[in-house]
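WARN retry 2 of 3 for item q-0093 after timeout on previous attempt; input resubmitted unchanged.
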Amino acid sequence: MDTGDNSWQLQKFQDWLEANGATLVKLELRECGQHGNGVYARETIRDNEQYANIPSDLIITSAVCRKELKDVLSADLSGRALLCAFLIHQRFVCTESFWKPYIDILPQTFHTPLHFTTQELLLLHGTPMEYAVEDRRSELCAEHKRVQEAVDSKADEMRKVLDFDNYLWAATVVSSRAFTKALLNVGREDISDTKKDNLNQGNTGAKASVLLPLLDMMNHRPQARITWLVDSDSGSISFVAGSDVTAGSEVANNYGAKSNEELLLGYGFCASSNPLNCYHIKL
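OK item q-0093 returned
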């Protein structure tokens, strides 16, 4: 995911996190080449050590989206559609909001097949991915139309920027970064457990979804072990290492049991030597 040269934006984002109650003492945010941005260990993180905490005020929930869009929507939205409307409004309309440091570090371009050129799409001809792309595009077109209809007729600025290209950008942010809201209802969750893939990152579709600044910056490593703790009183989320991470190494997340087809469609990359890779055949 291409984010451009944005080291100053990453520093501003980290300052924003810490100013609003997040703790990430042993972490460093930086660009990591073709992978966009990443999270790295400033100091060695030990197995079972808590290394970051995000307060509930920095979690983008449906309630947050509805509050920010109260003067924009004339009909209710939910799931991915609501998050997409929020993201477009924050990026293009409400450009000086509380969430700006987070919005500024999001990728502006993606490399999922939904963003392929005509020539690139020809490479998928006859494959299951070709049909998956067609189905996803059709689904997003219908969803985009529903969002357009939900925007108040007087919200001129929002209506001007609510074209399909911007909606596709927002939908890809959601598919590659959002988590299902079920995450907030557990006390301690080991997200390396592939049996609990419904809690993991990406492709949340119509489910109730949340965006988690910082956690959604961690890149994927198959079978990486990371545990999160949800404080039942404050709603904050803490990250706990499932193994040692040496100083200077990348701190990875685990997006769940996903084949390279799923990773390419939802995130725009494939994992080399993916132990969970498989090939789907449409009969």
